[in-house]
Design the sequence.
């Protein structure tokens, strides 16, 4: 039995080590949440696409890399990045509140967090959310904005305290199903995702004019990986200068993305 | 997008689900038999170690075990992971977890054979190995079939847990399609898939049980 156990364990190790060969080289592995349209999602033909993935594709083509689109579970994104199974997190990734945890590119999209309610709901402003049930994605920036207890976030904390309950679900689609079925009263969500839902199910939902917060999206690399960050960032600057960046953004104008691009402010 | 289109997308994960399912069945059953032997070993340290092994694997969530298998090599040994490891870790996690359950099922089967049969085999000059292979094992197989069917059916549904590693099997994809199309329908399609899959498993296992029903 002992010998067999030893044999089995060594086999396991062997398989593991073989599997751990490759990595990097000429590939560029982007970790993204495949349930986060329009930044990364499954297209009608079954392939992965989205604003961020199209940008990544163009960056790879210009550097001669092969793009690997790796869907990840958003809750374990840090483990994926640190363990090297992905090269960066590029998926509507919010910088605000995470400044020290990653090596960041410059922000390329200016994003805000908004509240969504049913069209027929009587909620009109943030104050009306008192005593209501609000839901958001676990590990999301909306959740951070509502729970971060640093001093400059006091107003949002107070707002969150006024809710009857702040619930968390694994992805925003579930949140919208919750809202539609009436078990929650509002969703705190990134504006890009909100636009996607508002457009695809017109007349069902409504966005509050008052925003929860404004924030920016950037690409997150493993701490200390400045080399890769600089290469990708410079390629993005090039793409912005020759118009390719905006061309890609225009494809997503339904979701207002072209108005949200802010990378131009950071080119020196 | 039409329901048919969504179904096609969701079912594109069928291969991945089948891969997890068959790999787990193929690896976990022999491993389960080994563990069962270890559990019944008269050499105390071995049976104790195996007892602890079974206790941990049955006592912690499978979802957590999958996460540990995938990220363990990095966090424990600092090994950089590659994309191939995602599938390997999924299959390792499932196989070893299910081996623990199968081990106890096999043990119940082996221990249900009356001691008198061992004595009779001994008198007839059978060696220990011959006794097990020719007399005990065939009877065990027949007796453990119903509980094994139970486990296999559970396994079909458990393959959906691979979503925590974002391995692109049916349930992972169903969730992604649901998000892209902003509808709940893909999840129902996935539900239908698992039901049909289990219907087939149930049918096949019933057939095997019938085939093994000789002497009755």
Sequence:
């Amino acid at each position: 039995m002992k010998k067999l156990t030893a044999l089995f364990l060594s086999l396991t190790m062997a398989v593991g080590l073989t599997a751990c060969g490759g990595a990097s080289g000429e590939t560029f592995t982007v970790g993204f949440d495949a349930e986060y349209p329009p930044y990364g999602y499954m297209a009608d033909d079954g392939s992965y696409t989205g604003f961020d993935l199209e940008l990544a594709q163009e960056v790879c083509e210009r550097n001669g890399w092969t793009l690997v689109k790796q869907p990840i579970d958003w809750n374990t994104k840090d483990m994926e990045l640190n363990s090297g199974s992905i090269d960066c997190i590029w998926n509507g990734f919010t910088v605000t509140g995470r400044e020290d945890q990653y090596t960041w590119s410059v922000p390329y999209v200016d994003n805000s967090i908004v509240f969504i309610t049913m069209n027929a709901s009587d909620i009109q402003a943030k104050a009306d959310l008192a005593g209501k049930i609000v839901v958001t994605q676990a590990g999301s920036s909306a959740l951070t904005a509502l729970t971060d207890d640093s001093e400059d976030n006091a107003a949002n904390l107070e707002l969150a305290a006024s809710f009857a309950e702040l619930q968390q679900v694994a992805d925003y689609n579930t949140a919208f199903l919750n809202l539609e079925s009436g078990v929650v009263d509002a969703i705190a969500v990134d504006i890009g995702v909100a636009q996607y839902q508002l457009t695809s199910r017109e007349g069902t939902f409504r966005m509050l004019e008052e925003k929860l917060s404004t924030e920016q999206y950037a690409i997150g690399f493993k701490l200390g990986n400045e080399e890769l960050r600089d290469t990708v960032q410079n390629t993005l600057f090039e793409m912005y200068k020759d118009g390719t960046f905006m061309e890609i953004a225009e494809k997503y104008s339904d979701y207002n993305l072209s108005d949200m691009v802010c990378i131009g402010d950071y080119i020196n | 997008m039409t329901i048919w289109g969504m179904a096609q997308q969701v079912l594109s994960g069928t291969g991945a689900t089948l891969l997890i399912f068959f790999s787990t069945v193929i690896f976990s059953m022999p491993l389960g038999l080994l563990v069962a032997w270890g559990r019944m070993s008269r050499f105390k340290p071995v049976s104790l170690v195996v007892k602890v092994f079974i206790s941990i694997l049955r006592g912690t969530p499978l979802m957590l075990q999958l996460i540990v298998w995938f990220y363990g090599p990095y966090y424990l040994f600092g090994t950089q992971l590659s994309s191939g490891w995602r599938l390997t870790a999924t299959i390792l996690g499932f196989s070893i977890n299910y081996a623990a359950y199968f081990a106890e099922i096999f043990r119940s089967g082996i221990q249900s054979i009356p001691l008198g049969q061992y004595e009779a085999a001994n008198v007839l000059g059978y060696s220990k190995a011959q006794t097990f292979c020719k007399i005990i094992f065939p009877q065990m197989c027949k007796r453990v079939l119903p509980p094994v069917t139970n486990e296999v059916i559970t396994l079909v549904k458990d393959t959906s847990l691979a979503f925590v590693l974002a391995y692109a099997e049916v349930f992972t994809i169903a969730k992604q399609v649901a998000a892209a199309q902003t509808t709940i329908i893909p999840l129902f399609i996935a539900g239908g898939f698992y039901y049909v899959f289990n219907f087939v498993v149930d049918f096949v296992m019933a057939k095997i049980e019938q085939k093994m029903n000789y002497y009755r």
Q: What stands out?
A: Chain A touches chain B at residues 1-2, 4-5, 8, 12, 15-23, 29, 34-37, 41-44, 46, 68, 70-73, 76, 79, 82-85, 171-173, 176-177, 196-197, 200-201 (CB under 8 Å). Residues 11-24 of chain A have pLDDT under 50 and may be disordered. The longest strand of chain A covers residues 109-118. Residues 2-19 of chain A form the longest helix (18 residues).
